[in-house]
């Protein structure tokens, strides 16, 4: 059986990993004051986006995901012919309409695919399952990477489904901005008062960084850390601690709002890389989704791992 994997461009995974596993990306369009950017997870274009954003400072952005009709057209024109079964994993549904659009499209696809496959002499039925990853950015990337790993191992559809269900309950993603300006600006535009003026002013003056955790479909601040480098050290040390205890899945994802080469030079990352190598865990590093950059600005760091023990930052 030919099993396909679809996700949206919020998913933080390296381009070479996406290509190797033939993962199909649903693009997201970013509208800004200086034009439109279509996020197809192109590394060079994404790095350029972050460079321009860093130079411009705080800016207004709007994101526009694929519509249900665009998703329907993609599947009926291509994917129902390329695959016999498809798993579609989206960014956390409480943060985006992508899950709803995919679910709506799936209902149409499953009632319209038969004549298309029959014309191509494909007599097997086509199946499509849409899942909310219950996470964002690096966390979403981890769930998708694990499904890709199981597909490569020729796991059954039921085994993959069971793993996804456990991953949505165990994957813990952490996100830390480098600067609070864009975070506060976008929050104000959306009517989110979680980053108020006083906390912004104090945080900026004292170099205090909030850490946001994405876990089981909820995003919430879980810590405030003095200093960006200290925060990175704590996040990577947290991942190493859970790695030593034993992870639910042998994958850790890291993403950065800019050129990932900045992260490879961090001592905390090198320690994590060595620990992953010792324990046979794949460590995936890439550019952070531009959707993340729109909301938290350039220079932020995200990390995700799957552990049955709920992580706590000191």
Q: What can you tell me about this protein's structure?
A:
The protein is of the alpha/beta class. The protein folds into two domains: 3-169, Rossmann fold (3-Layer(aba) Sandwich); 170-306, Hypothetical Protein Tm841, Chain: A,domain 3 (2-Layer Sandwich). 47% of the residues lie in helices and 25% in strands. It contains twelve helices and 13 strands. The chain has helices at 15-20, 43-56, 68-82, 98-119, 138-152, 157-170, 181-189, 197-206, 228-245, 261-264, 267-279, 290-296; strands spanning 3-8, 24-26, 28-32, 35-39, 61-65, 85-90, 127-132, 171-176, 208-215, 218-226, 251-256, 282-287, 301-306.
Quick structural summary:
By secondary structure, this protein is of the alpha/beta class. The chain contains twelve helices and 13 strands. It has two domains: 3-169, Rossmann fold; 170-306, 2-Layer Sandwich (Hypothetical Protein Tm841, Chain: A,domain 3), CATH 3.30.1180.
Keywords:
314 residues, alpha/beta, Rossmann fold, Hypothetical Protein Tm841, Chain: A,domain 3, 2 domains, six-stranded mixed beta sheet, four-stranded parallel beta sheet, 12 helices, 13 strands, globular, DegV_C
